Amino acid sequence: xxxxxxxxxxxxxxxxxxxRCLGVxxxxxxxxxxxxDGTYGFHSKYCSETLVGPHYKKNPEGLVHFLIDYAKKxxxxxxxxxxxxxxxxxxxxxxxxxxxxxxxxxxxxxxYTEVMNKETLHSLASKHGIxxxxxxxxxxxxxxxxxxxxxxxPCLVKPVDSPSFVSKFRKKMFKVYNRDExxxxxxxxxxxxxxxxxxxxxxxxxxxxxxxDAYLDQQGKVTHWVTCQKLRQYPINFGASVYTKQKYIPxxxxxxxxxxxxxxxxxxxxIEFKKDADTGKFYLIEINVRITNLNSxxxxxxINIPYITYMDLIGEPLESKGITHDxxxxxxxxxxxxxAVRKYIKTGQLTFGKVLKSYFQPKAYAIWDLKDPKPAxxxxxxxxxxxxxKVLKR
Length: 394
Known about the structure:
By secondary structure, the protein is of the alpha/beta class.
């Protein structure tokens, strides 16, 4: 196969799993990042090339020129796959220019950003009849009164632009229990120039979180999909997947397919739903529009999203497939799961026995791969170095 695949972002396990999913099929994989420091994906045996380019935020124009200069030297246009939210935002901003030189699934500029942005996503979902958590905006008149009458405490102060919020606060949102905390949290965000909304917390433990992971071809039709159930997250309750099992859930497959096709989406998307513990209804929480944390799990179930993307874009689409049974497979990011388990037990949300019992299932690991072990060793060195630096600062 002459088309190369350029992976944007190799300093996290999402990029690493994407590199592996393509490399096992003999594709020339080019990993791109803004630094070699801690970029353990560069050490995968499946990387044909590793490139250090300009930073996506500090010098986006420079990154555009860097990528285009590389693409111009190739015999065929490379497939461009982002593996972190900031890279998706970068591609969306320069989509028209980049599509002249790269194969990219999305054709509508602005759609990536529209579904990543919490406010525009919820408006879009409501328009299409999808349930979303009750929301109050801080520019509404008497918004705090509305929060206390409609949403009630505790509630969530959520960013409109998640990547920027996470970059600043190292968490996805603020959970507040009273008016004072609400006002302080809003001020913290707005002082940083970040827009926020206030949402009701849908009742239910973390295992009420579910995902619909799907690929839509260039005709805008879902061709491949998997549904999953989160078991644990980090940070706990409002974080990213660290222990998640594949579970067939027909209802969210139906909801997710119709919504993504109706909005004209193309490429990969992961919709996160939460099942209301009181009503049993599914609420759309957010959509990830880059390769997901669960990519290694999807691969083990037989849905190789990066390869599906690649083959679709070079004009050789794979046969459609959905996982309509429970495989008993789980995704495990051991490092953060162990941190999460400590918190779950400490807060009384889980028992040690229940956690221990959950581990007796076949696993898809976030970083470890017996056939490609070097990235895991590099990750280990990174963690040891981080701990050592903390000790020295004390």
